[in-house]
Amino acid sequence: MTGDSDDPVYYVISDLHIGGDEQLGEVDFLGELLDFLERLATTDEDAELVINGDAFGLWEFTEVDGLAKFDVLTDRYPELFDQLRETGDSIPITLLPGNHDNELAAYDEYVERLSEYNVDLVRAESITRPVGDRVIYFEHGHQRDPNNRFEDFGNPYETPLGYYYNTNVTSRAGRLSERGRFNWLKDVQAVTPTERVPRWLLSKYFYREMNPLLRYAAIPILLLLNISVLLAALAGLDVAGVWTMPVETADAVLARLGLVGEAVHFLLVVNAAIAGVLVLAGVPLYFILRDVGTTVDRFGVFETDLTVDPDEPYTAAARELFAERPETAVFCYGHTHRPLLKEVDDRALVNTGTWLKRLHRRDVVAGVLPPVFYPSYQLCAVRIAAESDGVAVEFEEIEKADPSADEITRTERLLTLGRAPTQTLPDRTVVADAGPESASAPDE
Predict the structure, then answer these.
(1) Model confidence over 391-426: pLDDT tens digits?
(2) 9-193+310-432 adopts what CATH topology?
(3) What residues does the Calcineurin-like phosphoesterase domain cover (predicted)?
């Protein structure tokens, strides 16, 4: 393996999801993207930019069709397309369709329109590029996802399950987002896996939309619910005369505290009463819901999940590809929005992540309060180049302010004290003939 300054260098990004109905059209990372493209326009490297799918959110446009979507994009983001044209004058820019912008593969006109901005649209499911005496394989990754796979690639009328989710849920969220107390509903496209959407909606309702008086009244009850259930059980044993010692001891201790003890005693009694009612109502409700779930499963209504495993299908696909094409050093994909770099059969499997906001679920420290979803950005580009000791793969972080300062309330911070996520990008890896020197993946 050899590498010098004349060898090609590849910068890879994916899953920008630019565009969509109303609030989905807000591109929070536009400034960072323009700066990145401007930097590539002035590089001395023999570089190529590969946009590995889902550059645009064409699925999220529901009020215009066909090429009219591209007209909306160029009208809404003129500075982006001007910068693409400028950068494309200096280095090649290659665009691969993803599932959200599959229409790019459906119309010849998209090739012509994008070429006006020096973007080479490749209407294929995968491409390869040479790196030293090895090869990089690129695909967006939706073809490994049964809910977003196209059996007839490039057919504008084929609509997999993911299409309906995005046109009926994501797009509608973009249209309704401004109606909330806070403009948060548009972030539904950042919730992965999609099975978490109901819990995310409950969380945002509780911490953002609920009447503050109701929320602050409910927090102590829900926070102490686990203790309250125990107290309700002990109170029941005391009333029945089975075991009176715990209640008598607690009453004696609180009586010595005077007014403070009376206040604590009142709060515990109220919580225990509420917990008792909830338990009495919850037991039959649990069995009813369990029976409903069993019936639904019997009919197979929800046999197909909305999401794909973020790792296993791509690991299997990479192993198969590396066996069939031994010259391939790197399998590069996107789609799942999770930055990843790990060793697979002495080669590298890399996911380029997303430029969208990411949401990280954190359970509260106690009680049965809704979980908190911390937002973050992990803007990055993957750089792949030949070096003297192999093919180097590394993430280049693009700095962006942490959005949690504005989007996470003090209440959410207190309830998840010590549980705020710390996100890091994978370490650099070199794929040599004998295998990678190092490989790692970030914690989720």
Answers:
(1) 999 999 999 999 998 999 999 999 999 999 988 999
(2) Purple Acid Phosphatase; chain A, domain 2 (3.60.21)
(3) 11-187
